[in-house]
Design a protein that fits this description.
There is one protein chain. The chain is an alpha/beta fold. The protein has a single domain (12-273), classed as NAD(P)-binding Rossmann-like Domain (Rossmann fold, 3-Layer(aba) Sandwich), CATH 3.40.50.720. 38% of the residues lie in helices and 14% in strands. It has seven helices and seven strands; from the N terminus they run βαβαβαβαβαβααβ. The protein has helices at 23-32, 44-58, 72-86, 117-145, 183-202, 224-231, 246-253, and strands at residues 12-16, 36-41, 63-66, 91-94, 149-154, 208-215, 264-267. The protein has a seven-stranded parallel beta sheet, sandwiched between helices. It binds nicotinamide-adenine-dinucleotide (NAD). The site of nicotinamide-adenine-dinucleotide has 26 residues, from α4.
Length: 274
């Protein structure tokens, strides 16, 4: 095997939603392979904390930019900044999302019948329209540059299967008040697969490769009862550790996946095959 297959030296990767839980892990993976991660987020303080945590874990530089994936002018300014400071863009990771909280009980707000339209619009704007706008601006630049590049859409195991609402059931709560995973999560993640396939063929001749990673849920201090229930749905019997997607991110961002576009890499402990 060519030892340079996974090398990302001299390449700049924009990671949206970079101040959250997984964004910094994508950045650590890229930095360790010699690439320059650029974390992008709307939350300035979280962003700076994330940038520092990446630099301290990877012992490599990491950049950060405040930008809003729902605002085209903000993204255009971010692209100009990257071109001026870092000399180009080799990749985009569409990772930003509004965490679709499981509600229910007294509020009942995440059940389909009561799901607020403005929440639907807010979540779509970040998770789906944001991915479209970032792809158009950063992907469009990569396509026009003559150098190509990669786009990696962070989808979910719930891009392939429906949420199992039994995971969230609460004893003693009426049926029409039971908490549920909101409809937006399923719709956004399924739609990202459509966006992946569309862009992969649209920009194939420009050598902009577009793939999606479908991660299963990450262990993150969930209640014991939830863990017990979800582990029963996963053949490997556990949720993912925070660092378990790093290899996949490097693979999909590097020459190791040079002959792969329009595809999904499903890493969910086997949940979607059961
Ligand atoms: N954590 C998991 O278990 C898991 C599992 C499967 C898929 N995913 C997906 O992975 C991605 C990252 O998940 P996470 O757990 O790190 O999420 P997170 O909620 O921790 O981070 C998301 C980040 O996006 C940022 N953001 C929100 N609106 C934005 C905007 N308008 N512009 C720019 N940034 C904005 C937030 O500030 C936040 O820092 C998401 O797409 C998520 O759906 C996560």
């Amino acid at each position: 095997m060519n030892p340079g297959l996974f090398d990302l030296s001299g390449k700049c990767f924009v990671i949206t939603g970079g101040g959250g839980l997984l964004g910094p892990r994508h950045a650590i993976a890229i930095a360790r392979q010699g690439g320059l991660p650029v974390l992008m987020d709307i939350e300035k303080e979280r962003l700076e904390a994330a940038r520092k945590s990446v630099e301290s874990a990877a012992k490599k530089p990491c950049a950060a930019l405040v930008a809003d994936v729902t605002q085209e002018p903000s993204l255009k300014a971010a692209l100009d900044h990257c071109l001026e400071k870092f000399g180009g863009i080799a990749g985009l990771i569409n990772n930003a999302a509004i965490d679709a909280k499981v509600g229910g009980g007294a509020s009942g707000l995440t059940r389909l019948e009561q799901f607020p339209l403005d929440q639907w619009n807010r979540e779509m704007a970040v998770g789906l329209t944001g991915a479209f706008l970032c792809s158009r601006i950063f992907g469009g630049h990569m396509a026009a540059s003559g150098k190509g590049g990669v786009i990696l859409n962070i989808a979910s195991d719930l891009a392939l299967i429906a949420p199992d609402q039994r995971l969230y059931r609460q004893e003693g709560v009426a049926e029409d008040q039971q908490p549920v995973k909101p409809v937006t999560y399923s719709v956004i993640k399924h739609a990202l697969i459509g966006l992946t396939r569309y862009l992969a063929t649209y920009w194939a001749s420009k050598n902009v490769r577009v793939n999606a990673l479908c991660p299963g849920g990450v262990k993150n201090k969930q209640p014991e009862e939830f863990l017990r229930r979800i582990q029963n749905l996963i053949p490997l019997g556990r949720m993912a550790d925070l660092d378990e997607y790093e290899g996949a991110v490097v693979f999909l961002c590097s020459e190791a996946s040079a002959y792969m576009t329009g595809q999904l890499l499903v890493m969910d402990g086997g949940r979607s095959v059961w």
